[in-house]
Amino acid sequence: IEVATSHKGISLSQRKYVIDLLEETRMLGSKPADTPMDPNVKLTVEDGEPLNDPEKYRRLVGKLNYLTVTRPDIAFSVSVVSQFLASPKITHWNAVIRILRYLKGNPGRGLVYRDYGHRRVEGFSDADWAGSPVDRRSTTGYCVFVGGNLVSWKSKKQSVVARSSAESEYRAMAHTICELMWVRQLLTEIGFTEASPMQLLCDNQAAIHILSNPVFHERTKHIEGDCHFVREKIQQGVISTCHMKTGEQLADIYTKSLGDVRVQYLCNKLGMIDIYA
């Protein structure tokens, strides 16, 4: 990780790592892509012909995993291609090449940390209901900000099939609250305390209503364990929830492949800047 400091803040990037990766895969002269994954392509296990050298695929995906440390914009696409390590196909390899072409466009893009004058802890939670064409499982996506700076994020397929969009969003909220609790504990240990409750922002009103409704409905009774955990933190005043517009949901980039305008907008909101540009 390359660290650059100035009066404006601290920048973290992996520019040399990206360039070395492009050189190793002979992609330095490739045409840059606007997005890490084609929004119109849905990868499945049975897609296309088997790859001649699956080890090459596994090595490359493993190296891309290290890049997600400073490149949250490729977290979802790397998560998707990681699901086909057992028997990769040519279409899966093409998806990995698409990620490399995207990196070629902004090899020096990284995270910039600034002093915004506050220490609020905020979590953005989102889910793509039944988004996986393989097993119809939903994808959880969340990101956590401390003092306006991105410190934690994740894109991961849920372990069970959700029966409704509200359920998938609610499970994502439970994972986000776990991460928020961990962040608060870490901040307390290093001497930073914030009296105000941590804020959880979600774009699904049904999932937020479940938090404040003591009656478990038919569609939520099978997630009662998660429900008690989340509602307990709300009642304790540790977490406060807030509904936000889908267009302003920053965790959107961790749950699905998006168009170039949307990707650029979210990268700016996440504090991702190419200081070498």
Automatic annotation (TrEMBL):
Chain spans, region Disordered: 30-49
InterPro entries, per database record: DNA/RNA_pol_sf
Record's protein name: RVT_2 domain-containing protein
